[in-house]
Design a protein that fits this description.
about 150 residues; mainly alpha; two-stranded antiparallel ribbon; 4 helices
Length: about 150
């Protein structure tokens, strides 16, 4: 029973180390992508085992593609989280502007803040645009009555 627990623990430690190495490798590939390296060069480096985090001398084509795609997904996640953080900051600033406008009696500014917030954060309906073509003229209607 003791030996079985020990083998299980060693296997778990190995899996954790392998997972950490893989994450480090994905991070190295992501850094290369950020620095402007093209896909073919990254895949070649993976397949030739040039990265520091690679335990094996060479990786298969399939594994290389998986790691490259994981790096792309990690970058997408990082970019999306940065966008979400900036959205939260922008939202709080608009809330402060709205509150200050209401407190100082500037209702037109408060309404403008609400309108901007709705547009920026995708809460407003998109403006209706209509293009019609006649034989002699082209007219554009952007939803105004002018």
């Amino acid at each position: 029973m003791e030996a079985r627990k020990m083998n299980s623990k060693l296997g778990k430690d190995y899996a954790e180390r392998k997972s950490i190495k893989r994450k480090m490798l994905i991070d190295e590939v992501a850094v290369d992508i950020i620095n402007g390296m093209d896909k073919k060069t990254c895949l070649d480096k993976l397949q030739l085992g040039i990265y520091e985090s690679i335990e094996q001398p060479q990786l298969s084509v399939t594994t290389s593609y998986r790691i490259y795609n994981a790096a792309i997904e990690a970058l997408k996640f990082n970019i999306q989280s940065e966008i979400d953080e900036k959205r939260a900051v922008l939202w709080s600033r608009y809330e402060n502007l709205y509150r200050e406008s209401l407190e100082s009696g500037m209702h037109m500014n408060a309404r403008a803040c609400l309108s901007d917030m709705a547009k920026i954060f995708g809460l407003a309906e998109p403006e209706k645009r209509e293009v019609s073509l006649d034989a002699s003229k082209i007219s554009f209607n952007f939803g105004s009555n002018v």
